[in-house]
Design a protein that fits this description.
The chain has two domains: 117 residues, no CATH class; 151 residues. Helix content is 12%, strand content 21%. It is an alpha/beta fold. The protein is elongated and about 70 Å long. Strands 1, 3, 4, 6, 7, 8 and 9 form a seven-stranded mixed β-sheet that branches. Strands 2-5 form a two-stranded antiparallel ribbon.
């Protein structure tokens, strides 16, 4: 019974959405996702706030609705999974660990004809799949808590996201404890000032490539990799531009085994060679240093840095 409404919408709107609900999605005009109701006459509230100018297809056969008000609601007659499609714009689409966060179960398409400045699925722990989502028409400025505490999420496609204007990625993936890999190679982080707790408690993450990250604007990497206990090699820290960095306290705390001695030495040498800020606090977990790494570490400490690690190898 769960697939009835969803399949019906796929047949009715397939050409309009240009997204196959069974997989293989390409870029679609509408922001498309699935909400689950569990009772008769159940209300779903969409967390859109600020300036709202959207058209919503609720996925139950009712006519598309033009919406220009905050936190719009819709009543579903029967319990089912409903595919909702939105075009237009809103300032903020954010569950913020409240409201109908537990009803969201799947993302199907970001939507080239849907824009927002702030996106937040914080607390959507029943969201499991977000694959093959195509391109997004949005250029968000704020992605703090975007997928925070999405503990059930096992796949996430962000390859179609334009992050060039985003200034805040604080806790963006914090608590995504079921993700084992995350492709961020297309991310433009040149405007991002905060990566505080970005991967906090991504405890199952074994594959992460941050070698393309531009961190030249980043001032805060505090707790960035805390409890990333399944990472066993440097995800790209050695290439970070840290000339704007003012704090990285607890950066790799309890991310033990993430950095080998050779990798940690290379990071220390690369960071010390930059025109860094004075008096920065940084934590490299249990990583140990030697040789040139020890020399670079001492030079950073001479600049007022507090460097915590596993000591000399």
């Amino acid at each position: 019974m769960r697939s009835a409404s969803r399949n019906a919408l796929g047949l009715a709107l397939g050409s309009a959405l240009r997204v196959g609900l069974g997989g293989g999605a390409t870029s679609a005009p509408a922001f498309t996702f699935v909400m689950r109701t569990t009772g008769a006459s159940e209300t779903v509230t969409l967390p859109m706030t600020g300036s709202v100018n959207t058209v919503i297809d609720w996925g139950d056969g009712s006519p598309p609705e033009t919406v220009t008000t905050d936190s719009i609601t819709h009543v579903y007659a029967t319990a089912d999974d409903y595919t909702i499609a939105i075009t237009g714009s809103c300032d903020v689409f954010a569950f913020d660990n409240a409201g109908d966060k537990l009803k969201l179960i799947e993302l199907l398409a970001w939507g080239t004809d849907f824009t927002f400045s702030d996106l937040d699925f914080f607390g959507c722990s029943n969201l499991v799949t977000a694959s093959d989502l195509g391109a997004s028409g949005a250029t968000p400025t704020y992605l703090s808590n975007a997928f925070r505490s999405c503990t059930g999420l096992t796949s996430l496609d962000l390859t179609g996201f334009d992050t060039s204007s985003c200034t805040d990625m604080n806790s963006m993936f914090a608590g995504c404890s079921s993700l084992t890999s995350l492709d961020l190679t297309s991310f433009d982080t040149s405007s991002c000032a905060s990566m505080n707790s970005m991967f906090l408690v991504c405890s199952s993450l074994t594959s992460l490539d941050l070698t393309s990250f531009d961190t030249s604007s980043c001032t805060d990497m505090n707790s960035m990799f805390v409890f990333c206990s399944s990472l066993t090699s440097d995800p790209g820290i050695v290439g970070f531009n840290v000339e704007s960095l003012t704090t990285a306290a607890s950066m790799c705390f309890i991310a033990n085994s993430m950095l080998s001695t050779a990798e940690y030495n290379a990071i220390l040498v690369a960071w010390e060679a930059q025109a860094v800020q004075n008096n920065v606090n940084v934590h490299f977990g249990d990583a140990t240093y030697s040789g040139a790494g020890a020399t670079a570490r001492a030079a950073l400490i001479a600049d007022g840095w507090t460097v915590s690690d596993g000591g000399e190898a």
